[in-house]
Write a structure and sequence with these properties.
This protein has 189 residues and is an alpha+beta fold. The chain has one domain. It is built from 2 helices and 12 strands. The strands form 2 sheets. Strands 2, 3, 4, 5, 6, 8 and 10 form a 7-stranded antiparallel beta sheet that branches. A 5-stranded mixed beta sheet has the order 1-9-7-11-12, with no helix packed on it.
Amino acid sequence: MKRIAVVVVALLVIGAAVGLALVRLGRSAPSGSGGLASTTIVLTCPDSAGQQGRNGETVVGGVEGLVLPGSGNPASLTAWRGTNGRRYYFYKVFLAVSKSSSPFATVSIVRPTSARMVYGPAIAASSTGPARVTSLVAASRSQIRMPVCGPRFTGFAGAIVVLKPSNVTFSVSSPGRKTQRVTVPLGNT
């Protein structure tokens, strides 16, 4: 009887851990936009690359890294195929949120509706085989929330995923700040 109780407790702990991980990544059922889900990735301070100095990039709504020279060059996109045979284009983007956005900034993709972002634990592995590409696409979302973790810019590594070279419109908001929008060409000269 004790063995059954231990197994039940172990399964409950594992189930709770998996449930928390799914909530943390903002998992949801895939939407109708090419199998990409559309919820929020909520990042935490341990997900950050740490405090950064300002790099002189354009700051939009307290976030730098969205507007980068050369983003319109098709060579800036990396094309990978998923297990479904579909080609996905990844544009690596290091975003940094200013302390003036405290306690957090939210970056949302307005259009195209098929575009997504992948940040946090999902981006950590470096392999790019079809199964890995499919898992990155599954973890991608239309919105990320980045916390302010100190007095300087808090940086986060990630990527924007598009189905083809596109102009992507972002909305950047944070408590107490006016929402700002910016359109960025991703591989779309």
